[in-house]
Amino acid sequence: MPQKSTEAYPYAFTVSYVERVWQHRWRCSDVTFHCLEGALCQQWVQTIREQLTALTSRPKHLLVYINPYGGKQQGERIYEQKVAPLFTLASISTDVIVTEHANHARDHLRTEAELKQYDGVVCVGGDGMFSEMVHGLVSRTQRDNGVDQNSPEEKLVPCTLRIGIIPAGSTDCICYATVGINDPVTSALHIIVGDAQPMDVCSVHHNNTFLRYSVSLLGYGFYGDVLADSERKRWMGPARYDFSGFKTFLTHHYYEGTVSFLPATDILGTPRDKTRCRAGYVLLYKCNLSNNIHNQLCSLVLYPHVWGWRVIRGKFLAINAASMSCACPRSPKGLSPAAHLADGTTDLILVRQCSRFNFLRHLLRHTSKYDQFDMTFVEVHRVRRFRFTPRYCQSDSELDLRENGKRLFSQICRDHPACSCSPAYSSWNCDGEILPHAAIEVGYVTTPYNLLCKYTVHSESIQTHSLFPHFVTLQPCYKMDKIKTHQSTHNTPS
Ligand SMILES: CCCCCCCCCCCCC/C=C/[C@@H](O)[C@H](CO)NC(=O)CCCCCCCCCCCCCCC
Ligand SMILES: Nc1ncnc2c1ncn2[C@@H]1O[C@H](COP(=O)(O)OP(=O)(O)OP(=O)(O)O)[C@@H](O)[C@H]1O
Ligand SMILES: [Ca+2]
Questions:
Q1: pLDDT per position as a tens digit, 164-207
Q2: pLDDT (tens digit, 9 = 90+) per residue, 205-264?
Q3: Does 339 sit in the ligand 1 pocket, CB within 6 Å?
Q4: pLDDT at res. 202
Q5: Pocket of ligand 2, candidates 65, 66, 69: which has the most ligand atoms within 8 Å of its Cβ, to mutate?
């Protein structure tokens, strides 16, 4: 279009819009429109404003929690420099809380926050911070509705607030696996345009007691040990995972136990599919399609004996349950590349005892195009529920010691990588938090088609539920966000 002279077109307004610049990366751009008449200019501005106001999915008032100690401790800087200006541009008002201690956000959301005034909550941090917010919101919703979260028999009530994630952690797996990139600006723009993505949420139980929710990885053995070791090295920042990963790789411990699981037989896909589920892709539709089928069969799922449990005993280097792909910068395709975000299932990956060399081959395949499941010592099952029982029972004293951060002889072995004996127990890595119990029971029931999250608890089980955790892409890449009006600097001379 030829350049219009500002003298001939003295009035102008600027529209900011979202542009996809590369793969999953979004940026904000703007375009200025010039008008001949002021009234016409105002009319355009007014109309566009009205259209934007009518978009009810867009948040107007947000509650933001910043973890200043997540990842490389850049949370506050990332928010102030990259995110807050975009929220201002999009006329989103915010209340910002910089957390002062662990579980600050969880407890504030659970007890104090006046949630009615907000269209969503935003977490600036990593997976651990996101997990805090999920726990705060879910607990709050249950309390407000008189539901006992510990009672495995009670149905949990859906929570309606969405959680947006601005990645500022070490792994940022939940952000990466849903948006496709861990970029604060891209995530802020998804929040602004009001994107939403339901996702599976699990509840983990032990002996009829609720332990935690999980949305990404529940990992025993390798990932449990990596986490346990890395927690003592938080000062290293994100590099702690590589250090502890290398150390844990050398220790090469296996753990004996029994895994029982309920295969998800009523779904379309398998963990070996070549397809990928990520918000903004056609696959999301496929994901919901399987949900429909699942919903129709939900009553059967509630009676597991109809389907039949499978039991596998063995010595495992790792037992991983990936409720989503768990893609992250370390492994862009993730632990289970074909896992779906909201299908009510988790992919249970069993890595049996094998040589170090073979385990390294398996790990390396997470970073290449080769199939990490195509190995004789690896199996993967898409399941609705599962439970794990270690071969040796954990005594109460062992549990107490674990909860206090100490370990029995396992600690000795851990500190001597050359020692060939394996400890009796590992820990569960639950979205980056350590669970003290080795024996957990996991069950999945979900109604993801219901876009308001819905929780249903079963005895001693982990279950998937649907939640609105994210403001994620589903939109075409061009979006008007904010209109600035101004008069051209060079007006027509009188
Ligand atoms: C040789 C290179 C192999 C690279 C293999 C990379 C596989 C990485 C898969 C990462 C999966 C992350 C799942 C997400 C879990 C989050 O809920 C949780 C909280 O943020 N993060 C972690 O637990 C943090 C877990 C971080 C795990 C890092 C593991 C690094 C392994 C390094 C092994 C080195 C062996 C080298 C031998 C020469
Ligand atoms: N002010 C604070 N001081 C100390 N710890 C905090 C504070 N605020 C939050 N936390 C805790 O810090 C833990 C880690 O935070 P976060 O998840 O943001 O970063 P990360 O562990 O580096 O990243 P990732 O979880 O992606 O690996 C969380 O479990 C959270 O409970
Ligand atoms: Ca899933």
A1: 999 999 999 999 998 999 999 999 999 999 888 877 878 888 88
A2: 888 788 998 889 999 999 999 999 999 998 998 999 999 999 999 999 999 999 999 898
A3: no
A4: 81
A5: 69
Residue 3 lies in a domain: no
Q: Considering 30, 95, 119, 127, which one is annotated as catalytic?
A: 127
State the total domains in the chain.
Answer: 2
Ligand 2 pocket, mutate which of 129, 133, 430 (most atoms under 8 A from CB): 129
Q: Clarify whether residues 245 and 322 are in a common domain.
A: yes
State if residue 228 touches ligand 1 by the CB under 6 angstroms criterion.
no
Ligand 2: lining residues by beta carbon, under 6 Å: 67-71, 99-104, 125-129, 132, 169-172, 432
Cα–Cα distance measured from residue 40 to residue 82, given in angstroms and rounded to the nearest whole number: 34
Contacts 24+ apart (CB under 8 A), 44-53: 44/13, 45/13, 45/483, 45/485, 48/15, 48/480, 48/483, 49/483, 51/480, 52/480, 52/481, 52/483
Compute, in angstroms, the gap from residue 141 CA to the centroid of ligand 1. 33
- Domain span at residue 425? 201-466
Is the CB of residue 326 below 6 angstroms from any atom belonging to ligand 1?
yes
Residues 382 and 286 placed together within one structural domain of the fold: yes
Predicted-complex ipTM score: 0.95
Q: Which of 56, 35, 57, 30 is nearest to 46 (CA)?
A: 35
Instruction: Please give the distance, rounded to the nearest whole angstrom, from the Cα atom of residue 252 to the centre of ligand 1.
Output: 15
* Residues 354 and 479 placed together within one structural domain of the fold: no
- CATH code for position 115: 3.40.50.10330
The answer to the question of residue 492 being in a domain is: no
Whose CA is closest to atom 28 on ligand 2?
128
State yes or no: pLDDT of 20 exceeds 60.
yes
Same domain, 157 and 233: no
- 195 contacts 126 by C-beta, under 8 angstroms: no
Active site residue 266: no
Q: Residue 348 CA: which ligand is closest?
A: 3
For residues 167 and 84, state if they share a domain.
yes
